[in-house]
Each structure stands twice: as C-alpha cells, then as structure tokens.
Amino acid sequence: MAGDTLVNVPNGILNTIPDSQRTYQVVVAATQNIDIGKDGKLPWKLPSDLKFFKDVTLITSDLVKKNAVIMGRKTWESIPLEHRPLPGHLNVVLTCSGSFDIATAENVVICRSMGFALELLAASPYCLSIEKVFVIGGGQILSCDAIHITEIETNIECDTFIPVVDMSVFLPWYSSFPLVENNIRYSFTTYVRVKNITIEPLSRANGAKSIIA
Ligand SMILES: NC(=O)c1ccc[n+]([C@@H]2O[C@H](COP(=O)([O-])OP(=O)(O)OC[C@H]3O[C@@H](n4cnc5c(N)ncnc54)[C@H](OP(=O)(O)O)[C@@H]3O)[C@@H](O)[C@H]2O)c1
C-alpha cells in the first residue's frame, strides 16, 4: 500500500509496516439495550435522526475535503439503491468476501479489514482529501475518539447490537433535549474519549446543551 514502509527482518522476509492509522468517530442510533437493527434494516423511522447523521458526518472545516464513512457490508446493503453510495462521503465498505465487488462505483472503496481501511485512509491520497472518518455500523465499534449516539428511549425489538460503551473511557460531551417522532422518544448524545476532548463543537438546531462547560 502507498505510504507503507518496507523493512528487512532477521529471517529475510520483507514485512510491511503501516505508517499509521486514522482515528475515527462513531455515529449510531441505539436503544437503551444498545440494539441498532432488525432484519437488515433500521427498526425505526426518525427523519430528524437522518438529518442529524448528515449534519455530523458531512461537515468539514476545509471545504475542499470530504469525510469518509466506514460500514459493514450488510449496512451497505441496507441502504436503498438510490441512496448509495452515501452522497458527499467516501464510502468505505468492509467485507471479507472476494465475490463482493462494487469497486467500480464512484466514491466507494472496499476493504478487507478495519485496520486496512484505517491505514488506507492514513495514506496518500486520502490523508490529504479526507478530513474525518466516521464508523457508521453495523455491529462493530472499536476504539474510537467520539461516539455520536442517538439514544432511543422506546423499547423496540431488534436483532443487531453494538458493544456497551465503556464509560470509564468516555465522557459525555453533549446531550440534546429529547425529541418525539413517530411515538419514539429519543435524544442525541455525544461521548468523547477522556484523553481527547478537543473535537469541534457541533451546531445543533434543536435545543442543544453542552455537558462540558
Ligand atoms: N442504528 C444504527 O445507527 C445502524 C447503523 C448501521 C447499521 N444498522 C443496522 O445494523 C444491521 C447491519 O449490521 P450487522 O452488524 O448485521 O452487519 P454489518 O456490520 O453492517 O456487516 C457485516 C458484514 O460486514 C463485513 N465486516 C464487518 N466487519 C468487518 C471487518 N472488521 N473486517 C472485514 N469485514 C467486515 C462482513 O462482510 P462479509 O460477510 O461480506 O465478509 C460482515 O459479514 C442492519 O439492521 C442495519 O440497518 C443500524
């Protein structure tokens, strides 16, 4: 991969050492049981949440750059054909299957692992053209810098889950007032990794309050 360093190791085999990996944030909507999906779809219809998703993931401070969204293959397939690739983003799709081939689509990159995706985005040309990286699902969430979570208070049956957020590592940074749409009560909360609370403030239209003074 471009940007990698080749090193000679004692057994004479050339190994590839990646220069670095991109950090990333997570954007997800989940119930209090951290359920996120059902039958390959979102089990709720929340237009304001879709707007929130766009607001968070599309904004760049450098207008020449765009952001990347990383998703599992099933999440990609859950996006209606007419809406994918998600416009305005570089869409990175994770799959181990060699038969899954959409690489010819514009603004779509296929990666075999999360590590490879984060290395690819850290290397040229993406290190120059991609400002922020968001993991948007499905069930895989790793060691991110920030989690933008739409917290759904209503109980809804699901079959896909995310790992529990380790609150010893994350600090709540922002929480919106609750909204109600389609009889579902929910709010937007952002958690940031404790060692890294310098992410840019988000502009909110729906009565935002910041937890950090
Ligand atoms: N509430 C939300 O915010 C939200 C967000 C996104 C998705 N969802 C929901 O979540 C469900 C889909 O999530 P899911 O967990 O079932 O599937 P997923 O994570 O979207 O996709 C799983 C597939 O992605 C590939 N994959 C995932 N992690 C990988 C890795 N680290 N390396 C390589 N390949 C990897 C594999 O593809 P191959 O099998 O091709 O190898 C795997 O089978 C849907 O119901 C969707 O609507 C909800």
List keywords for this structure.
disordered N terminus; 213 residues; binds NADP nicotinamide-adenine-dinucleotide phosphate; 14 strands; alpha/beta; disordered C terminus; Dihydrofolate Reductase, subunit A; single chain; 15% helix
Brief summary:
This protein has helices at 47-58, 73-78, 114-122, 126-129; strands at residues 5-8, 14-17, 25-31, 35-37, 66-72, 89-94, 108-111, 130-135, 146-152, 160-161, 170-176, 179-181, 184-193, 208-210. The protein is of the alpha/beta class.
Describe the protein in words:
The chain is of the alpha/beta class. The chain has a single domain (19-210), classed as Dihydrofolate Reductase, subunit A. It is 15% helix and 34% strand. It has four helices and 14 strands. It has helices spanning 47-58, 73-78, 114-122, 126-129; strands at 5-8, 14-17, 25-31, 35-37, 66-72, 89-94, 108-111, 130-135, 146-152, 160-161, 170-176, 179-181, 184-193, 208-210. Strands 3, 5, 6, 7, 8, 9, 11, 12, 13 and 14 form a ten-stranded mixed beta sheet that branches. A two-stranded antiparallel sheet has the order 1-2. Strands 4-10 form a two-stranded antiparallel sheet. A hairpin with a 2-residue loop joins strand 12 (179-181) and strand 13 (184-193). The protein is globular. The structure holds NADP nicotinamide-adenine-dinucleotide phosphate (NAP). NADP nicotinamide-adenine-dinucleotide phosphate (NAP) binds at residues 28-30, 36-38, 40-42, 71-75, 78, 94-97, 100, 112-114, 136-140, 160. NADP nicotinamide-adenine-dinucleotide phosphate binds at residues 28-30, 36-38, 40-42, 71-75, 78, 94-97, 100, 112-114, 136-140, 160.
